[in-house]
Amino acid sequence: PYLSLLGANRVLDHFQLPSIGGKDSMSGSYLSADGEIKVPPTLVSFAVNTGKVEQVISPELKPVPSHLVLFRAVKNRDMTFDLERTEANYRLFREQVMAGNVLAASVITDSVERTLVNMAKGHLVGARIKINETDLYNTILAQVHQPVAELIGQVEGNQLMINQTEIDLIQRIESDDAILASIYPIVQPQSGTLECNNHPISKNPQPKSQVDVLLPVFPGTNSEDDVARAFRAAGAEVVQQVFVNQSGSMEQAIDELAEAIDQTDILALSGGFSAADEPDGSAKFITTVFRNYKVKNAFHRLIERGGFVIGICNGFQALVKLGVFDNNKIEDPADVRMSLTHNTIGCHQAKYVSTRLTSNASPWLYLGRVGAEYPVPISSGEGRFYSDEETLHRLHQQSQIITTYVDNPNGSAWSIEGLISPNGQIIGKMGHTERAGIAINVPDQRDMKLFQSIVSHIKGEI
């Protein structure tokens, strides 16, 4: 460890970088059989930096005919790094990123093969390289338009060839997944297809020049900024109101929330883990707040005057458990016939999925294309929609099932991802539609324009 620290200090000194040190607590996990603490000599380093999002390069190969090059971390004969030459190569890489020449890049930390396989997995993109060296630690492997560095291969087709050896990407993905399958069981996704329902667009008879959105921030809410950004981009005015739950403040917080609902056009419940999803279930804190008679009555007044409500992820969980998709209003808990529960895979799901728009029977969906598929990120442990068959048939007959999973990752009944209320004013989705189009490693940027649709409808523009 001492030599490692000296080496780390040499690198920091060369690049004029600061560091923060710490030590392991040497907890009981390192106790030997005789009770003596034995810590293996180890140095763990975490390197972080800041930068502009538009200048970040993701690692997955893009499906574009291009070149693979190396920006080397050069070593001396004694296997230490030649920092002058390495820095020059890194600076060249940075210049190429800024010039827009770099499509993808990854630092080699084990082998060229493993790095390239991981880069190719995302979009199952093929490549051909020739290289005999194995010790390329800290060298940058990059996909570029123009080969300005050391050329080792091409990105093309869907076959991965390393020195004339073909690698089956699908087989590698399956074998990699199998390593932790006993800990994180792999459940095959369920597929489902519902009949799509196309409805005529209804013009707003009382258009407004300004659309006001209320976005309550509960303890544990964590997606309010994303939702606010999406609404503002669509032309709405957003108020983010923190729900203060400290002792002695609850009654005031209830009053302020009810008053704010009476002043808004749209109530937006964003994602998160309200009150850490305790006790033993998602969105219980939010549902408790909205069942307070003051907030409940304000919610009903909002619907009666033609206002709108959206719930995303944790917000959708709250709306489902409030029963608003049965009859446009908050129901008693005993009367609610649907819920969102734990994913069939038994753990949190965080990834991009494809959803299909199956109904546009709401102003929220007027700008979407019925039958089209849209990519959307999901992030939830309780995203599996569940209800009895009678309720499911009723939801479908009334065109309330608005989005379904193409491949059902969490085992939802009828592959349901999103719903609207019978009157079309309330919408709920598990997927984070507010984050559509922001992932630089997802080339499919299609957006159902949910936020733009509702704002334009209220303004009388569609």
Please provide a written account of the structure.
The protein is an alpha+beta fold and 462 residues long. It folds into 3 domains: 48 residues, no CATH class; 124 residues, Phosphoribosyl-aminoimidazole Synthetase, Chain A, domain 2, CATH 3.90.650.10; 267 residues, Rossmann fold, CATH 3.40.50. 27% of the residues lie in helices and 21% in strands. It has 12 helices and 20 strands. It has a 9-stranded mixed β-sheet, with helices on both faces. Helix 6 runs parallel beside helix 8 and helix 7 crosses helix 9. The longest helix is centred in the N-terminal third of the chain and has 16 residues. The radius of gyration is 27 Å and the shape is globular. The protein starts with a helix and ends with a helix. 35% of the residues are buried. The mean pLDDT is 90.
Quick take:
The chain is of the alpha+beta class and 462 residues long. The chain has helices at residues 2-15, 83-98, 112-121, 169-179, 224-233, 250-262, 284-290, 293-304, 314-322, 324-327, 389-397, 450-458; strands at residues 66-71, 102-107, 127-129, 140-144, 150-155, 160-162, 165-167, 190-191, 212-217, 237-242, 266-269, 308-312, 338-341, 349-357, 373-380, 384-387, 401-405, 407-408, 416-420, 426-429.
Distance between the terminal alpha carbons, to the nearest Å? 66 Å
The gross shape turns out to be globular
Number of discrete helical segments: 12
- Give the biggest sheet: 9 strands, mixed
Number of domains: 3
The CATH architecture assignment of the largest domain turns out to be: 3-Layer(aba) Sandwich
* DSSP, total strands: 20
Mean pLDDT: 90
Q: Approximately how much beta-strand content do the residues carry?
A: 15-25%
The third-level CATH topology of the largest domain is Rossmann fold
- The structure class reads alpha+beta
Highest CATH level, the class of the largest domain: Alpha Beta
Strand order of the largest sheet: 10-9-11-12-20-19-17-14-15
Radius of gyration based on Cα positions:
27 Å
